[in-house]
């Protein structure tokens, strides 16, 4: 009889534990957080063994849509980035904002990173210690004070650190990036030449085709969505007839569906992150047979 009770109690505890995990797994939240890591992978499932769908960068404000516990890897957050993209990240990469706390770097003095990579240090000296972390281009950090070469920033985790002022531009948040000319967009895009292709990537450490053009457009004062197919159909861009492409336009490719995108840098050439021949950001000729066979169409931002 005692054995039966023990078995029943053990079974009950097991069921309750399962239900608790299920509640956590299904829990929808309205929490807001900020990314505390330099570059954080977003996965299709709550596991680092799943495929990477995108990345969230340091200082990005995110919505926490769901929480799930992975017994082997701890808590995971299903989150949404400002461009409406969703994926799973490890909870350690996010600091949840407290009630009433304003979004990180949303007001006051900030520094926007303009170098491809900006190293962040624990003291204003590049020789004493290795960097704490890095901030990729487009990152916006709280800037407390600065003098000469160095500025003191408050990181999303709350820690104070130092950055070289030559790595960015001082701005007052909130701000809007100015709209760049086509020539300026081309110059900006060419800074990424030779950087590695990385599926799901959004930073100079590695970047994919749609992440690349999204970043170039964002830095040029134009916001578009994340994936190539929705950039083509849902980003509010203007349709351009074939043969009328010009610098700054996006060109889309695919066989059965759109799977690739690049940006025109002239009437014939486009720049893109690709695995074709060499897995790097490179320049290709739109009129080559390979690209013409899979060329779908062109889109242009509104004036």
Explain the overall architecture.
- With 303 residues, this protein is an alpha+beta fold.
- The protein folds into three domains: 70 residues, SH3 type barrels; 66 residues, Roll (SH3 type barrels); 119 residues, endopeptidase domain like (from Nostoc punctiforme) (endopeptidase fold (from Nostoc punctiforme), Alpha-Beta Complex).
- The chain is built from five helices and 22 strands.
- The strands form five sheets. It has a seven-stranded antiparallel beta sheet, with no helix packed on it. Strands 17-22-18-19-20-21 form a six-stranded antiparallel beta sheet.
- Strand 18 and strand 19 form a beta hairpin.
Sequence of strands across the biggest β-sheet = 10-9-13-12-11-8-14
Q: How many runs of DSSP E, i.e. beta strands? A: 22
* Largest beta-sheet details: 7 strands, antiparallel
Structural class: alpha+beta
What is this structure, in a nutshell?
This protein is α+β, with helices and mostly antiparallel strands and 303 residues long. The chain has five helices and 22 strands. The chain folds into three domains: 27-96, Roll (SH3 type barrels); 108-173, SH3 Domains (SH3 type barrels), CATH 2.30.30.40; 182-300, endopeptidase fold (from Nostoc punctiforme).
Task: For the structure shown, list the relevant keywords.
SH3 type barrels; 5 helices; 303 residues; six-stranded antiparallel beta sheet; 22 strands; alpha+beta; endopeptidase fold (from Nostoc punctiforme)
């Amino acid at each position: 009889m005692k054995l039966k009770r023990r078995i029943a109690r053990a079974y009950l505890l097991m069921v309750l534990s399962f239900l608790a995990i299920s509640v956590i797994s299904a829990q929808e939240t309205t929490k807001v957080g900020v990314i505390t890591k330099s570059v954080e992978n977003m996965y299709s499932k709550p596991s680092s063994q799943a495929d990477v769908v995108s990345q969230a960068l340091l200082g990005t404000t995110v919505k926490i849509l769901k929480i799930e516990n992975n017994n082997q890897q701890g808590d995971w957050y299903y989150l949404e980035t400002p461009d409406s993209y969703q994926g799973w990240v490890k909870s350690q990469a996010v600091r949840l904002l407290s009630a009433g706390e304003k979004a990180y770097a949303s007001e006051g003095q900030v520094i926007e990173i303009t170098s491809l990579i900006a190293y962040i240090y624990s003291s204003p000296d590049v020789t004493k210690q290795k960097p704490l972390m890095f901030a990729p281009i487009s990152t916006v950090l709280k800037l407390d004070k600065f003098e000469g070469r160095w500025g003191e920033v408050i990181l999303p985790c709350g820690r104070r650190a130092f950055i070289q002022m030559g790595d960015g531009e001082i701005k007052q948040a909130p701000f809007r990036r100015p709209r760049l000319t086509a020539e300026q967009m081309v110059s900006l895009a060419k800074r990424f030449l030779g950087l590695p292709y990385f599926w799901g990537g959004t930073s100079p450490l590695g970047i994919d085709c749609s992440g690349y053009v999204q970043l170039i457009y964002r830095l040029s004062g134009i916001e578009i969505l994340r994936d190539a197919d929705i950039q083509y159909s849902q980003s509010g861009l203007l349709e351009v007839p074939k043969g009328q492409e010009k610098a700054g336009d996006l060109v889309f490719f695919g066989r059965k569906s759109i799977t690739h995108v690049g940006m025109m840098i002239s009437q014939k050439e486009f720049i893109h992150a690709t695995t074709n021949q060499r897995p790097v950001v490179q320049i290709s000729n739109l009129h080559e047979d390979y690209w013409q066979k899979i060329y779908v169409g062109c889109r242009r931002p509104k004036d």
